[in-house]
Specification:
mainly beta, 8-stranded antiparallel beta sheet
């Protein structure tokens, strides 16, 4: 006798029925044929529902395979974690210069209450219940649910957790003895899943004029929404960038989901005048805040053949009550990969404009990352910047496979592009105009008459 189990499928949660097929071999060593009563010779599982034919005809010398199918409801109980467990020990703010997603995992559990049988289970985890997370390993996982215990499988996830929306480069505010330099950025935390780990913000030094001339007394400091608790300036960890970290004890946690104003304040020797937008004088006034606007998409990624040209589009959305002037420029664009005919525009509240960006792939393969800088400037002179990275991979012509996005026939190995690479369709036979058909018919007819003559 041998038991065969069936794969059990779980859709997120549920109590599933266990299925077992009991396999028996019946051998007839006698010289006669017997009609065997299965119920008399085959045991079934207590309290399980089993089905079988009651009689089986066994010929002389035959070895007959006989199957008994048994089932019992709610013997396997499945569920998955309510929250994601983090692998990452900190989160890095996404900017045009750095991207590093947070990673974590969830477990999918099955409690097998059958005391003597292991089951193979396929658990279809519901990843959509964790906002903004995406799976990096399959969400359909298969594992063995061991008898009489709880077993689990793991789905690994990734999260774009926190990003820089816009910033105001450090501006100067003269004080009695020093010049106060204030940098402010608008930072968005997407979920509460990172509230218990530090968040690191890596700021390009170019946004902090005279950083290397800062005074040690008064010391530089950083604050988030006006609080400097558990916010630390670590300095230049990576050349060209200043790291600032908010720890898990900033408040009751690090930063929960929401929008924050992250400031870095440092002092330099006094200088004449002020570059505070809209004028201004000594300290004590309210800090400036970035203008409210958005640019979508906030990153571009393109794979393109050498020498190919295409156009992508950005849409600027303005949310300020008063009119705002918008313009843009390109950074890290030495090879002139990016260009545009957009010369700027003034948008009213809730106005928007779509900007075409021409991308011309260079003739050298490789990775390129120019940056689109969008400037919003108020009538008071406040300038807020948003940076859009453009990730470009330039590949040899003819290297794209079927189904890949394409911009020209030359990019595809198939030689045919219709937004994606496809098999080149067969060309239909050219149509002959009716007038030409008539002329051909007359010539044929005349030839026939001439032959008859």
């Amino acid at each position: 006798m041998q038991d065969i189990t069936h794969e059990i499928i779980f859709n997120e949660t549920g109590n599933e029925t266990a299925y077992i097929t009991m396999q028996y071999n019946i051998t007839n060593p006698f010289s006669k044929t017997f009609n065997v009563s299965v119920s008399e010779i085959m045991p079934t599982r207590a309290n399980w529902t089993c089905t079988y034919a009651n009689y089986s005809l066994v010929e002389q010398g035959d070895k007959t395979l006989y199957l008994v199918n048994c089932s019992k409801s709610e013997m396997l109980i499945g569920w998955q974690d309510e929250d994601v467990t983090l692998y990452s020990s900190e989160a890095l703010v996404r900017t045009a210069y750095h991207e590093q997603n947070v990673t974590g995992y969830i477990k999918a559990y099955v409690n097998n209450t059958v005391p003597d049988v292991n089951f193979t289970v396929k658990f279809i985890a519901n990843v959509s219940k964790y906002p903004y997370w995406t799976n990096i390993t399959p969400y359909e996982i298969q594992f063995t649910a061991l008898n009489g215990t709880t077993s689990y499988g793991i789905v690994n996830l990734t999260l774009d957790a926190v990003y820089e929306k816009s910033f105001i480069s450090a501006y100067q505010v003269p004080e009695e003895e020093y010049t106060k330099n204030v940098y402010v950025a608008e930072i968005v935390v997407r979920t509460n899943d990172i509230k218990d780990i530090p968040i690191r913000y890596r700021i390009p030094k170019g946004r902090l004029p005279d950083w290397d001339k800062r005074l040690s007394d008064p010391a530089p400091y950083s604050q988030i929404n006006g609080s400097s608790v558990n916010v630390t300036i670590l300095g230049e960890i990576e050349p060209g960038y200043i790291d600032v970290v908010v720890g898990p004890y900033h408040g009751s946690s690090s930063l929960e989901a929401g929008t924050y104003y992250w400031e870095v304040i440092y002092y330099t020797k006094s200088s004449q005048g002020s570059n505070v937008p809209g004028g201004g004088g000594g300290g004590g006034g309210a800090a400036l805040r970035p203008l409210h606007f958005d640019v979508l998409p906030d990153r571009l990624e393109i794979k393109i053949g050498v020498g190919i040209e295409t156009t992508k589009y950005l849409t600027i959305y303005s949310y300020e009550i008063n009119p705002i002037s918008y313009s843009l420029e390109f950074k890290n664009n030495e090879k002139n990969i990016l260009s545009t005919e957009f010369e700027g525009i003034v948008l009213e509240n809730k106005g928007n404009v779509t900007v075409p960006i021409t991308i011309r792939a260079p003739y050298a393969t490789g990775q390129y990352k120019p940056i689109i800088r969008v400037f919003a400037r108020s009538q008071e002179g406040i300038t807020t910047t948003k940076e859009i990275p453009v990730y470009i991979t330039v590949i040899p012509l003819g290297n794209k496979t079927l189904g890949e996005e394409c911009y020209a026939h030359e990019e595809c190995a198939s030689g045919y592009c219709d937004r994606v690479c496809k098999i080149k369709p067969e060309m239909p036979a050219p149509e002959i105009p009716i007038r030409e058909i008539a002329i051909i018919a007359i010539i044929v007819a005349l030839g026939y008459i001439f032959l008859r003559i």
